[in-house]
Amino acid sequence: MGVHIAQHSRTLSHSRHPCSQDLATMSKAKRAGLAENGDGGMMGVDESALASAIGNGEDLAPFIRAAFENGKPETLIHQLKYFVKKKEVEIEDLCKLHYSEFIRAVDELRYVLVDADELKSGLAEENRQLQEVGDTLLRMLDALIQSHGTKKNIMQAIDSLKTCTSVVDLCMRVNEHVMNDSYYPALKALDIMERDFMPVLPARALRQLLERQIPVCRAHIERKVNKEFNDWLVHIRSASREIGQLSIGQASSARQREEDLRGRQRQAEEQSRSGSKELVYMLEMEDLDEDDSQLKFDLTPVYRAYHINTCLGMQDQFREYYFKNRQLQLNSDLQISTTQSFLESHQSYFAQLAGFFIVEDRVLRSAGGLMTSARTEQLWESAISKVTIVMEDQFSRMQDANHLLLVKDYVSLLGATLRRYGYQVGPLLEVLDTMRDKYHELLLADCRYRINDVLANDKSERMMMRKEYEYNMNVLAFHLQSVDVMPAFPYIAPFSATVPDCCRIVRSFIEDSVSFLAYGGHIDYYDLVKRYLDKLLVTVLNEALLRLVRSPILGVSHAMQIAANMTVLETACDYFAQHAAKLCGIPTRLVEGPHGALSAQSVLRNSQAVAHDTMIKLVKSKVDEVMNSTLNINWSPDDPPQGANDYLNDVYIYLQTIAETSQEILPPTAFYKVISGVLEHISRRIMETFLSEDVKRFNIYAVMGIETDLTILESFADDKYRTSVQDRVPMAQPLKSFLAEARQTVNLFMATQPDLYLNPVIRERNYGALNPKNIILIGEKFKDLPEKMFGGGRGGRVVAKKKLIDALIKRLKNEA
Q1: Total Cβ atoms within 10 A of residue 776
Q2: Which among 423, 445, 468 is the end of a domain?
Q3: Scanning 14, 22, 689, 751, which has its CA 20 to 30 A from the CA of 801?
Q4: What range defines the domain where residue 385 resides?
Q5: How would you class 250 by CB atoms within 10 Å of its CB: exposed for 0-12, middle for 13-18, buried for 19 or more?
Q6: Which of 397, 423, 449 is the last residue of a domain?
Q7: Which of 596, 564, 558 is nearest to 577 (CA)?
Q8: Has this prediction a pTM greater than 0.85?
Q9: C-beta of residue 198 within 8 angstroms of C-beta of residue 167
Q10: What gap in Å lies between CA 767 and CA 753, rounded to an integer?
Q11: Is pLDDT at 592 greater than 90 in this prediction?
């Protein structure tokens, strides 16, 4: 082929091609045309800029726009035509320049055409052979493609079967979960089927079946869960009472432990104050909070129902359903039983309430939003308003203090129980506070009845105790002992059985009052207890004793025993105050001394004065009965007396009896008051006898008889003063000084110089108790001895007593 191309090239080089002449002619013509147009075509756009833009392939729009804006598009057209002609000339020149190479290229192209035909024939043969081989391969390829299609279909069928198998397995698991009451896994399986398998499930019939059955299964689960929840509602209502009772029992135990701890603290404090050297220090590690693990109740149905309904997207409806049902249960629980009295049913009533709200607290804290604090508070406020109305109504109907206390104790335990769970129990305590006065009025009425009964059955005899336990129970228990040494038995107390019986009543009143006021709305309730205690002692006990004192049939011994009992009861007031303080948790040191004394103590002290006055009055009345016989005295005897007058024997015996009895049972001050009052009354009665119109005349022998009587009485007075008064009653005058008026009168009439009475100094010293008017009246009755002389005793000189007395009386009348 190369040879042929070379030969053909040489042939072209020696011969001129016909078209070469034509090209030369065209080139000349064009150059001539360009020369003719000359400069006329360059009168518009810059030719170099236009040529550069065309050469670079740039957009000619700016040139065209500028030509039209200038109104000379023809000029641009001429320029373009000129540029074309110019390029054609350049092309012709170029062709002329490479003419020989072009001829050679054409020759070579001819040889190439020959070779191309040969190559075409070879390619056709190769193609025929390739087609023969390719037919077999194509048939095999078609078979392969068909096999791949079959395989794909089989794989799709396998995948579909696997999907259906998984769905069927899920359905079986759902049925198994439902049968085993495992509702949450069942719902999760249903969600997986609905979310993951339903969109890609190939079996239409199975998909349609699932579309129908999945809602049915969910509805079945919902019904079963709600049925379990409804069964739980029924069960928890009956279990709430037991829950409340157990929780209230725990509160009661905690209260008892607290009281025991306070008791040990008080005991340790008293030992410390008493200076005991053997003190036991003990640290007790004790958990005072009750373990709520004992409050076992199952909330699983609630958790399950709420969780399942949440999974079903029905949590709001279930919350409302739960709240309404529990609200209905609460309203039913707050209804008062019509078959039992409130006293019999109050414990179960309040236990049911406590159990309800304990359950609600657990639900609030652990059910994950089923109940909110606001709704729980709504239930509590509704319940507390109804309960307070019920309590006020029932308390207003109660007429027994013990019944009211029983209910109050349980209500306070209910408050303590629910306070641990965060409920506001203030309204409950406020109701108890409003019942405080009524309770104490009922308690006072009961104590009044019991005290009146005790006083009515009192035998007014000193109490005898034969055994030590009796002494401990009746004396030491109320701090009534006068000495710390155990007495010998049998022991006769200065008081009657009324005193320990009344002390027991007062002590029970204190304990009941503290029980009512404790664990209520008052933290420091000692002042309230003290006020009610004063009211008991003043309006009940003191008035009952005063009624006895003022009884018209009261005897001396009875009055004396009442006075003695009052003295002991006054002493017991210190014990009452300390006992109240102890029960209230107040340190004993705070109630010791005058500032902590009960006001009833002074009232009882004043009542003692009334009793003493009544007793003295009765004793004086008895003395009057005995001394009425003084009118039978011979006031003008002819001989000196050989002893005391007859009446004095009875008076002395009676005085001894009164003194011995009062000395044993009355305090020294009371004994002093009684004996001094009686002696003063005897002295007054002697003076009244002298002044009586029944005594017309008396002589010196009669005065000597009265002097003997006074000597005996003064001996009695000195003895009692020395043994019972001197060291026991501060600032006490000698008892015989209360006989001063009678003694000074007798001394005056027996004096050898009665006119010394006129001396102010002597009168003040020796006759200060005498009234001159009485001396005048008595002196006028004095007469001299018949035919006998009265011996003055000084040097045997005899003086007429009558004349001396008459002279004294005359002087006194002149002074008057």
Answers
A1: 15
A2: 423
A3: 689
A4: 248-267+295-423
A5: buried
A6: 423
A7: 596
A8: no
A9: no
A10: 13
A11: no
